Amino acid sequence: EAQVTQNPRYLITVTGKKLTVTCSQNMNHEYMSWYRQDPGLGLRQIYYSMNVEVTDKGDVPEGYKVSRKEKRNFPLILESPSPNQTSLYFCASSLVGQGDGSTQYFGPGTRLTVL
Amino acid sequence: QKEVEQNSGPLSVPEGAIASLNCTYSDRVSQSFFWYRQYSGKSPELIMSIYSNGDKEDGRFTAQLNKASQYVSLLIRDSQPSDSATYLCAVRVGSSASKIIFGSGTRLSIRP
Q1: Taking CB atoms and an 8 Å cutoff, what residues of chain A touch B41?
Q2: Shortest CB distance from B104 goes to which of A42, A48, A59?
Q3: I need a labelling partner for A113 at 20 to 30 A (CA). Which of A4, A8, A78, B111 fits?
Q4: In a structure prediction context, what are the per-residue pLDDT tens digits for chain B, which is 112 residues long?
């Protein structure tokens, strides 16, 4: 089954404790992206990757890191989480370019709470 | 000005009527436009995509794109209670279509 998976689905942590949220896709997509969703603000892009070893900042990259060492995986790293990073996080993937292939497929989401 | 704007709603429509959702965008080089439906606490799922001016129909859904006016809309015919959700407009921006901007979403409620 074609899918994007994220782990963990739920995480409660404390300020300053490093964490990683994993994202994996099995559709051989070049493009992967991380979003956060907050009430009234919609989905905001954190980082995206056009291919292996190619990453770039989205609209809200502060406090986050990513890496793309393999095509299927795109982990999101919070080196020192703060309470303002409490949010619902989504990973998504797609082919590169325009047209129907550029439709993004989303993971199930990770609800993060930073105390 | 936000890059992708939607009326936050809530938009209340009687069952069986047509729901009309609107979205405007500011990046003139945008070429790919998407409508996603999102139920509370769930991930967005694609409803429609559109790339050319005009209308695109898929079942009860019709997407309309007007690049000159920088406007994209979604019509839902014969609205059902299961259509009650938040609808997100998304635009791939830039010459390489690398960034994706979402609107803040319109909450749609279908009343029986």
Answers
A1: 88, 109
A2: A42
A3: A4
A4: 568 999 888 999 999 999 999 999 987 777 789 999 999 889 999 999 998 899 999 999 999 999 999 999 999 999 999 999 999 999 987 666 678 889 999 999 999 8
Q: Cβ neighbours of residue A50 under 8 Å, at least 6 residues apart?
A: A30, A31, A56, A96, B96, B98
**Strand B99-102 and strand B71-76: pairing?**
unpaired
**Radius of gyration (Cα) for chain B, nearest Å?**
13
B60 φ/ψ sector (left φ>0, alpha ψ -120 to 50, else beta): alpha
Banded pLDDT at A42 (limits 50, 70, 90) = confident
Neighbours of B14 (CB within 10 A): 10
| Pairwise CB contact (< 8 Å): B42 & A45 | no
**Cα angle, residue A63 at apex, residues B102 and A28 outer, rounded to 5°:** 55
Q: CB pairs under 8 A, 24+ apart, for A43-51? A: A43/A90, A43/B44, A43/B88, A43/B90, A43/B102, A44/B102, A45/B99, A45/B100, A45/B101, A45/B102, A46/A76, A46/A89, A47/A76, A48/B98, A48/B99, A48/B100, A49/A74, A50/A96, A50/B96, A50/B98, A51/A96
How confident is the model at residue A91, as a pLDDT? 97
Q: Chain B contact for A43, CB < 8 A?
A: yes
Q: Do B43 and A108 touch (CB under 8 A)?
A: yes
For range A29-47, the mean pLDDT: 92
- CB-based contact A41 B104, cutoff 8 Å: yes
